[in-house]
């Protein structure tokens, strides 16, 4: 049955664009639920799939929704106390919750710099950062991934106040940023650093406090974004920084101001996740699995894996068709890995993104590595 009486020219336009993607093997489709062993989710510590589920929020929370934005009727003692608890956990002065990491990045990047300022961002920064930059009045320029020389060259050519944007662990390559050296540059040129800790939250630093805390750089960073949809196993994000930063975002970050606040059960889940993180031994189990996975790969495959100390291990294949084909073959062996192709990554950087978890058994990790070794031997 056709409910839409709109001019079919719009449908034709959609179809035409989609056909072009299909031709290039870059058509995105929602994957079906499956029973394969999870080597693709960002649930690095397994908080999303167990642990947090024991937290029966329904019995405790009075409201199912926050009722409005924080500035109208959505603010609560719960929101504020959890914000301060998280700020304390990461050795920051204050925190402001956002509904997602996407919202946090769009909100921060959209308003932090003024007209005439410059934002320099790592070329591999996440799409949410790029979308925030589109809202900014400042000039923005990418620098070569983790390249301090290119960063410095760009700083020297910059005007106004300078903001440098990077990540703790990069979402697609899995490597860390050279933050210590970047802080050196930020001091030399009086620039400010903004860091997205989406993938380093719960993974790096003592008790998962993140990359900034691991390096002891808490006092050197203007803005830290931690997100809760990955290792923390729930949803939402927080921006950490000074009291002035928090007040500024409450006044200017549009993705904070113009949206219904996180519901109490979400905030309560976040608090529970931090309680778990304080005591968990899963970070250690995860590290062991990462080491074991890399050790089980043969030399040929190891050369194809991007250097990464983190749970994100990317097997660079190149070519959308071939990447999808090899991912399918690994999936057929019972492992849920995902092909990542353009435009999510640059053309020629197509890869299979493998996420190692604390809950993957040593046998599963070894068996995945063995399957990859075998499959890529056939491809040689
Ligand atoms: C580096 C990075 N930042 C931000 C986000 C967005 O976070 P969220 O999923 O909470 O919106 C992601 C999610 O993929 C990410 O990888």
General description of the model:
The chain is of the alpha/beta class. It folds into two domains: 30-45 and 281-379, Aspartate Aminotransferase, domain 1; 53-279, Aspartate Aminotransferase, domain 2 (3-Layer(aba) Sandwich), CATH 3.40.640. Helices cover 43% and strands 14% of the residues. It has 16 helices and twelve strands. The protein has helices at 8-23, 57-60, 70-74, 77-89, 101-111, 127-135, 148-156, 179-188, 211-214, 243-252, 254-257, 264-279, 282-296, 299-304, 320-332, 362-379; strands at residues 37-38, 94-98, 118-122, 139-143, 162-167, 192-196, 223-227, 237-241, 312-316, 335-336, 338-340, 351-355. The strands form three sheets. Strands 2-8-7-6-5-3-4 form a seven-stranded mixed β-sheet, sandwiched between helices. Strand 6, helix 9 and strand 7 (223-227) form a beta-alpha-beta unit. Helix 5 packs parallel to helix 6 (127-135). The radius of gyration is 22 Å and the shape is globular. Bound molecules: pyridoxal-5'-phosphate.
